[in-house]
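Anyone able to model this chain together with adenosine-5'-triphosphate?
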Amino acid sequence: MYQIFIFLPTILEKRLRMKKNINRRTHEKKQSEAALSFLKEPRTRFIIGLAFILFSLYLLFSFIGFFFTGGIDQSLIDKGLRQIVSNPEITAANPAGNLGAWCSDLLINRWFGISSFIFCYILILSGIRIAGKEITGYPKKIFFSIVLIIWFSVFLGYISDLFYSVFDLQRSYLYPGGAHGYFVTQWLNSLIGGIGTFFLLLLTFAIILFFGFEKAFYKCVAYFKSLIPKKVEKTPESSTNQSGEETETDIPLSQPYTTSRTEPPLDETLPPFISLEDEFNPGKDYLRKNEEVAEDSTPYTFPAKGTEFPTKSDIQQETTFTNGQAEDLPFDEGKEEEGENVELTVSNEKQEETVSRNLQPEEDYDPTLDLSHYCYPALDLLEEHSTGNPKVTQHELDENKNKIVETLKNYKIEIVKIKATIGPTVTLYEIIPAPGVKISKIKNLEDDIALSLAALGIRIIAPIPGAGTIGIEVPNQNPEIVSMRGILASKKFQESKYALPVALGRTISNETYTFDLAKMPHLLVAGATGQGKSVGLNAIITSLLYKKHPSQLKFVMVDPKKVELSIYSIIEKHFLAKLPDEEDAIITETSKVINTLNSLCIEMDNRYNLLKEAQVRNIKEYNEKFIKRQLNPVKGHKYLPYIVVVVDEFADLIMTAGKDVEQPIARIAQLARAVGIHMIIATQRPSTNIITGVIKANFPARIAFKVASMIDSRTILDSPGANQLIGRGDMLISVGNEMTRVQCAFVDTPEIDAITHFIASQQSYPSAFALPEYIPENEGGSNIQEADLGVKDPLFEEAAKLVVNSQQGSTSSIQRRFSIGYNRAGRIVDQLEAAGIVGPFEGSKARQVLIPDEYSLELLLKNLGDKF
Ligand SMILES: Nc1ncnc2c1ncn2[C@@H]1O[C@H](COP(=O)(O)OP(=O)(O)OP(=O)(O)O)[C@@H](O)[C@H]1O
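re: yes, here you go
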């Protein structure tokens, strides 16, 4: 008790002090909060930003002035800052006054030299950012600016030092690299010498360039690749005989299997980034080397390693003997005849050189060889779209949770547990109801929960498949924009091994949503106007452009609205397919759409024939076999690119063309999967007369953006839900029985513009990928063959060669080999008949080939001259 009296004053004093401290701290906190909110105010930010920008312009003027007045102002600067600032009698010649003269001397001469100009850039950038404008990659930009300041300072220090010492000049008032550049150079020169410093500068420059500017790296690689002549295998044409003269020799049979070109590589004849002058044919390179092989139509098999093939010179020799000329020669004709035999020895030598070659294919066929310098678009071309909005706050989460619990309580539904998963646009509240609660009861409360949360588009998933819980999706107050850049940069997409990889957006659990279009195998996309359909299509196309080489993928684009897909027209020669003789690769007219779809059906049939002949089941196996050089291009085999058909605004087409469009689409949808033709069809109006039963049955994968009604949602997804989405890229993807809510990645038009320009600036094929010709029945029909007989088909000669070489006069082989329609191939065969190259039509039997070899054919063609 006594002790209490002793310590009470001390305790009270302590308490008082604590309270005072707390009060002071609260006061200080309040003060700093007020200061912070003042700084955060848009007006304050704008003023500070403006101050930064104006100061940077002031510095810029003073720097420029320094180059003209720096020498005169030297004596003034030596007086020190205090004198300069306080003494009005001192006036600098610099247009930015005393302070400007002092600042520029400090930054240019005493700090980093001429590279100090970059400070102005940093200040302007920071000013703009402080003023409230979002700058993508700001920290990276600032970091690289600082690195550049340091590098240039040393570089200029090095260069100026070299210059002064080589020309033995007097140093001026200006230090181009500043004191920093000067001293670092002096130190480096003493440490690693002038040459070492030079190499170090070169290395650091490469590091800055390639890590700071991703595109620069790829451009440099492409440029250097173009400088290095490709390894050209020494061909017999260029081989020299023993006397060093160039000799004309037949192409040995082993040559067709090699991948190097017999003509100069493209990059030797053309600078990078211009069109090829060659005819486009993905298998051209392959063919060029195999043309000589197929003299007959027997299956194409590779000779066993080391097998000796007779060369053409062998064959010629044999011919000479069987013709009897050699036999007719008297065996001992005298010295002169022996002299001729010497020539024969030389030819034998050549023959030995040829047969000793390895006849096994040295490398697999590379379909990308025609555009071997092609650079894939860099991620830098895409923007980081950030809303600047804070994510879902704890307060928002608690509030929603409480309201859900309360509403359910009002309906006598007890909850055991609740868990929130924050997605980019919605938050999923997973609840476990108390035992005995009926799921349907919760499901029926959708509207009530929406009302109590005062939020639109509440979706209840009851139960969540596989989780045993009930999900309530509540839109976030500040939805996030998912940038395409982040999605494409994700490891999941980058490492995907899909045939047609697509990264579409982010799921509710913030995972990147990727899929293989080749497995879908077709996509139906629907959504009311302005809900993100076009952005969705662009996201799909962009993903494919980021992963595929032009030799592996072609798009057929149908755009009745004429504005949505036109942006891709500039990559026509890289990635688009179109009908021959068609001007625009983006199809906008209904009649042309019908022709194109029918042409795709022909392409599909042709591909099926190729697959059948190759004895494979799908395009993947076919291309693998082709790459392994197990298929003979002379027999029409070629590397098959995937074809993705994108139809924007399908409703317009169905309205105007009805069955004419529906039928080929249904046919392609049913059959084209195995041959690598995939369709993406988008529509604003998901009504049953547009998405008919036939279409629906063949499009198992569907994407729904927000639609106007539950009926529309049912039409597209076979279930409600799409009517409860919140728009702006919020979507439901249904594949089989699985439904996933995804926030579509946002990719803006300028970004697509940048990507397409990047692709278009590179070397291309000479034209778009040609689809088979399709002539509608009513445009001449069967009479067309007779009508056109007088005009020689441009492919006539090539077709004649094919027929003679393969000794097969079938229309279908011509059709396949040249990717042309049946009508045109038939017309060519009729012309071949008229020219006496093939015999008449013999019912189911193939036509007889009347010309035995290519030599006779050449004679015949010469004789025919311009008869056609
Ligand atoms: N994934 C997204 N993220 C954020 N905003 C989006 C997204 N998708 C679309 N938007 C916004 O919605 C607008 C309309 O999108 P879009 O042009 O794709 O609509 P649409 O469904 O194609 O409309 P329409 O059928 O009339 O062409 C865009 O300009 C954009 O502002």
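The mean pLDDT is 77.
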